[in-house]
Design a protein that fits this description.
alpha/beta, Rossmann fold, 5 helices, globular, disordered N terminus, disordered C terminus
């Protein structure tokens, strides 16, 4: 009987954790979609589809496919692609690097050098490593850090609304401590 109770408890614990993880991915995909509204790309990137590429195999791919279906970024239809490796990254507006692929940030930046691609990550400390936007969990909230200098260096224009809601990372300021990561049960999304 005690063994059965342990199995039931473990199963419930696992289901709750999977549901929380899935909801977290859903919120992250909403963040990414909202970023398309608050960043302006050069005129040459306003032709064809608006491309969001996910690096590696991640649940974010399916979440984005679901959440952007039939939606547009400005006048462009959104296309979500998946790149299995760095060489698989083609011209895109946004490159999303999930935490499992975070070790590839530097290589991705080199691959995209000179291109107006917004690089979004999701692991503590990656804003200091050169990510443009880093989605993090702090104080039980899903938030994002943003580096205006990094973004402007790519010939992208970021709106004040996006800057006002995010945690600004100033590349010229001394490093600062980022609050410890916690599980998210609230979100902060730009409106």
């Amino acid at each position: 009987m005690e063994s059965s109770m342990r199995i039931i408890f473990f199963g419930l614990f696992l289901c709750v954790n999977i549901a929380a993880y899935s909801q977290n991915e859903r919120f992250k995909s909403l963040f990414v979609f909202n970023f398309t509204k608050y960043v302006e790309w050069p005129t040459a990137y306003e032709e064809g589809d608006f491309v969001i590429t996910i690096l590696g195999n991640s649940p974010m791919y399916n979440e984005l496919l679901h959440n952007v279906k039939g939606k547009q970024a400005g006048k462009q239809s959104i296309e979500v692609l998946q790149a299995g490796n760095i060489s698989g990254i083609r011209q895109c507006h946004i490159l999303y690097i999930p935490s499992q692929q975070s070790s590839l940030l530097e290589a991705a930046q080199k691959h995209l050098a000179g291109r107006p691609t917004l690089v979004i990550t999701e692991k503590k400390g990656l804003i200091q490593e050169g990510a443009d936007i880093n989605i993090i969990q702090t104080n039980k909230k899903l938030q994002y850090e943003i580096s205006p200098q990094q973004i402007e260096n790519k010939n992208l224009k970021v709106s004040k609304t996006l800057l006002n809601v995010g945690i600004i990372y100033d590349t010229n300021a001394p490093a600062r401590r980022i609050p410890e990561l916690e599980s998210a049960d609230e979100t902060t999304l730009p409106r």
